[in-house]
Amino acid sequence: MTQEELDSLMGGDVDIESMDIPEADEVLDDKVDGITDMSSRTQDAHWPPPAPTDDNKMVTQLDDVTRESELKASEIFDIIEQIGDDMMNAESRVSSAIEVVGQNIEMLSTLHEKFPSIKTFENSLAENSRIKEDLDAEVVMLQDSGDQIMNVMDIMQYQDIHRQKIERVINVMRALSKYMNTLFSSEKEDSARVSSANHIHGDDDTEDVMDNDDIEALLNSFGK
């Protein structure tokens, strides 16, 4: 109802029977719908929270992640380094083979010039020339692969950066934990406190709640 409708009603200028007043059932339905929506949102939250086991301790899990990541990264670096060394050794051996093939080509070229009619010299010269081309291509491939290995090692450096970021999160979480422990600490020992009731009247998920008769009997025992 607007302010104008309220003023008209107070002045007697409005026919109440002609007003569109929502039924009580409609208002009740709206309230029930609102409660249902709130209940559905409440059910989305998991309660009680998970038990503080090692599988649920966040800092413990993050510590495990950083430790395992550092270990695996070290193993990967060792493997990459070994691959790089093997490739360098392979490049050295191929270079030595290219040198020998080059000497063969020089000798066969001289023999082919002096004895052009001998096909063996010509065929051997062609074969050695082809082998030298293949070996040169292998050297280029090994050098390119070595460059890629270096790129991989550079990329792996981000693994250490990510580990440092996780460790920073751990430090913040530990600082917050210590702050909360200090904030809720007390000089009074827990043993000196009155124990809290595990259940209260109205709980539906337990059978050991005291009823009214039990409470009266307890009060009478105090009086005695």
Overview of the molecule:
By secondary structure, the chain is mostly helical. The chain has a domain at 58-178. Helices cover 73% and strands 0% of the residues. It contains five helices and no strands. The longest helix is centred in the C-terminal third of the chain and has 65 residues, at 119-183. The two termini are 62 Å apart.
Keywords, separated by commas or semicolons:
224 residues, mainly alpha
Question: Short description, anyone?
Answer:
With about 220 residues, the chain is mainly alpha-helical.
Q: What is the ordering of alpha helices and beta strands?
A: HHHHH
User: Kindly, what is the distance between the CA atoms of the first and last residues, rounded to a whole number of angstroms?
Assistant: 62 Å
Q: Which shape, going by the Cα principal axes?
A: rod-shaped
Mean pLDDT: 78
